[in-house]
User: Which sequence fits this backbone?
């Protein structure tokens, strides 16, 4: 095993463990802390795949901005007794579990069948694709329209957020 | 060998940084005393020069009091997050060009990552967790308010910080901090090319370091220390250290981005031996950082605190439009000059 | 052979070791004499009243949402700024279009008053004149 593979397995195990801890902890704030940790580990995995820009976005947007939002919600709502959060297993949950099993089987089949001869080797081109320069060059020439449409999407998000989140009183 | 050199560099930088932090506290106390017409600490050692040693020793032997109702694991974790994040920013800052020592050419920067400045931005975003978690874990009303305020503060200034950096990238076309410094050779300092960006960035750095006029998360008169009300001994010391380490890394970033980093005008053409050139460059960097730090200290003791709504107005209604306008104007001028 | 990111990771690890060593040393040398009064939550010398973990105002949340969206916008600007000098006028125009579209959202939020800190209207007390209907001049 090369050192890359070892690093990958350590990171993958850590991220899975922290993800499991996110959903099993009772206290929402501790879940948030584990989720931040999980996001940072994911960012490191992206870095090992030479996807630097995605890694930075992962940290700035997810671990930075979205988690601050979550922290706010948890701190603002403070649901009090954490025991009140326990849920019963309803029929919805049974369906969800079934779907999750189907999904994971699909993913496993996909992963095991679709890779060619070198499943754990990075193509030399892949080291260039993830840099910020390359993303800039492609995004602002080839994928110009999606980029401009993204701005409209963001606009809709701003307006939707403020309209839904806050109804003015009076 | 390469790993050993990196290791030595990291240890040296960390020791220098921690020493600087300790002495920055002393400088701050002496300057504040000067401004308030007091004497300040001057008894330990010659003119109080050993005061930081005494302070650190005192913090080590103080009892650690954790409130019974606090969340203990998070209470313990929060200062560690705060200090590690604030120290780690320095890892990408170049403090000199390169130096020849014992036959090895050593680059005076720990790591020149190709996302450079984005790494700094990502870490500043993470810095808030130490404070927010401390505020929540203490189970104290003041602390929680402090943590909440620090979250609220970051959403008001981080935008203008990011957009000011975009002005720098537009001019230099690189994200790497060492290349940004190389761009600023001679007198091409970015403060001259990006004066507006410099101002918005510097203000954001003040907010990022949680210092007056933006020290809402601590606010001694209102929140009795805010997020670190329930911290004692070394854990309090770590928060204290993190704040001052943040100051140093923050001003190092300001110097690197806008004040020419280690560049000393006309030094390369002066014909000095290479070794001395390197030493002077490191000295220049240290002097510039020191000047920015002194400015920050003086500001703290002369300006009153912002209210949160004022901070929000400043961030959202003044600095954000100003920095966006700066980006557009910069882009236009660059287009004209090409 | 260490990559640059490897060095950053090394820095993180060493910083962590440094802090842990410090904390362990302090744990060894410091006294431990807790008693119940010392371990109460600090509330300016009074006994603490209630739990601090109560519900707080929602007003920060809306600002945080807007912040999140603008943060995404800024991340689009980074690759643009980096390749701007290669692409020239074309890149300038497309970014101006992008910013104008987002400016509409910004202006909407501003005009709607979501960037203002909404504080409750102060109920300013005033004294009605001392007359027969209001002999003691109470605050209205």
Assistant:
């Amino acid at each position: 095993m090369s050192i890359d593979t070892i690093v990958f397995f350590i990171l993958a195990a850590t991220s899975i463990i922290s993800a499991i801890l996110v959903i099993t902890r009772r206290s929402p704030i501790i879940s948030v802390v584990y989720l931040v940790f999980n996001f940072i580990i994911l960012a490191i995995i992206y870095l090992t795949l030479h996807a630097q820009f995605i890694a930075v976005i992962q940290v700035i947007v997810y671990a930075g901005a979205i988690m601050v939002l979550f922290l706010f919600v948890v701190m603002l709502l403070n649901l009090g007794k954490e025991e009140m959060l326990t849920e019963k297993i309803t029929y919805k949950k049974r369906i969800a579990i079934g779907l999750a099993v189907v999904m994971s089987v699909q993913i496993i089949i996909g992963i095991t069948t679709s890779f060619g001869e070198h499943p754990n080797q990075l193509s030399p081109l892949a080291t260039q694709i993830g840099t910020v320069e390359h993303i800039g060059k492609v995004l602002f020439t080839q994928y110009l329209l999606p980029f401009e449409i993204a701005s409209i999407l963001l606009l809709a998000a701003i307006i939707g957020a403020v309209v839904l989140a806050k109804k003015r009183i009076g | 060998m390469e790993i050993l050199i990196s290791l030595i560099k990291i240890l040296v930088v960390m020791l220098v940084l921690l020493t600087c932090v300790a002495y920055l506290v002393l400088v701050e106390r002496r300057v504040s005393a000067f401004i308030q017409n007091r004497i300040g600490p001057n008894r330990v050692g010659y003119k109080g020069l050993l005061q930081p040693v005494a302070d650190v020793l005192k913090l080590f032997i103080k009892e650690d009091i954790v409130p019974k109702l606090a969340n203990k694991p998070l209470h313990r974790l929060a200062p560690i997050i705060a200090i590690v994040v604030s120290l780690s920013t320095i890892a990408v800052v170049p403090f000199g060009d390169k130096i020849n020592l014992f036959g090895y050419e050593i680059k005076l920067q720990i790591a020149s990552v190709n996302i450079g400045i984005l790494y700094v931005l990502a870490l500043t975003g993470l810095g808030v967790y130490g404070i927010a978690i401390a505020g929540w874990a203490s189970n104290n009303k003041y602390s929680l308010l402090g943590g909440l305020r620090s979250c609220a503060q970051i959403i008001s200034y981080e935008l203008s910080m990011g957009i000011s950096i975009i002005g720098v990238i537009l001019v230099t076309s690189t994200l790497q901090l060492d290349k940004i410094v190389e761009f600023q050779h001679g007198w091409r300092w970015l403060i001259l090319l990006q004066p507006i960006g410099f101002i918005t960035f510097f203000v954001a750095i003040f907010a990022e370091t949680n210092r007056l006029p933006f020290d809402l998360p601590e606010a001694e008169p209102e929140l009795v220390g805010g997020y670190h009300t329930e911290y004692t001994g070394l854990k309090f010391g770590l928060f204290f250290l993190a704040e001052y380490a943040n100051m140093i890394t923050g001003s190092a970033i300001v110097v690197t981005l806008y004040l020419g980093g280690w560049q000393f005008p006309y030094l390369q053409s002066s014909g000095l031996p290479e070794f001395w050139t390197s030493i002077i460059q490191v000295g220049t960097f240290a002097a510039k950082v020191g000047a920015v730090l002194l400015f920050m200290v003086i500001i703290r003791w002369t300006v009153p605190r912002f209210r949160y709504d004022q901070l929000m107005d400043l961030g959202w209604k003044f600095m954000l439009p100003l920095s966006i306008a700066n980006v557009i104007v910069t882009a236009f001028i660059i287009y004209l000059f090409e | 052979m260490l990559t640059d990111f490897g060095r950053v990771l090394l820095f993180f690890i060493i910083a962590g070791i440094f802090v842990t060593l410090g904390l362990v040393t302090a744990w060894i040398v410091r006294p431990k004499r807790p008693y119940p009064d010392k371990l109460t939550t600090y509330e300016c010398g009074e006994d603490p009243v209630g739990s601090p973990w109560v519900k707080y105002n929602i007003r920060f949340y809306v600002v945080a949402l807007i912040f999140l969206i603008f943060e995404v916008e800024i991340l689009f600007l980074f690759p643009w700024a980096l390749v701007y000098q290669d692409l020239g006028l074309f890149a300038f125009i497309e970014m101006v279009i992008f910013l104008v579209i987002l400016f509409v959202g910004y202006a909407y939020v501003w005009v709607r008053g979501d960037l203002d800190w909404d504080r409750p209207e102060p109920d300013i007390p005033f004294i009605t004149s001392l007359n027969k209907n209001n002999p003691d001049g109470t605050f209205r």
Remarks:
- The first helix of chain B runs from residue 2 to 35.
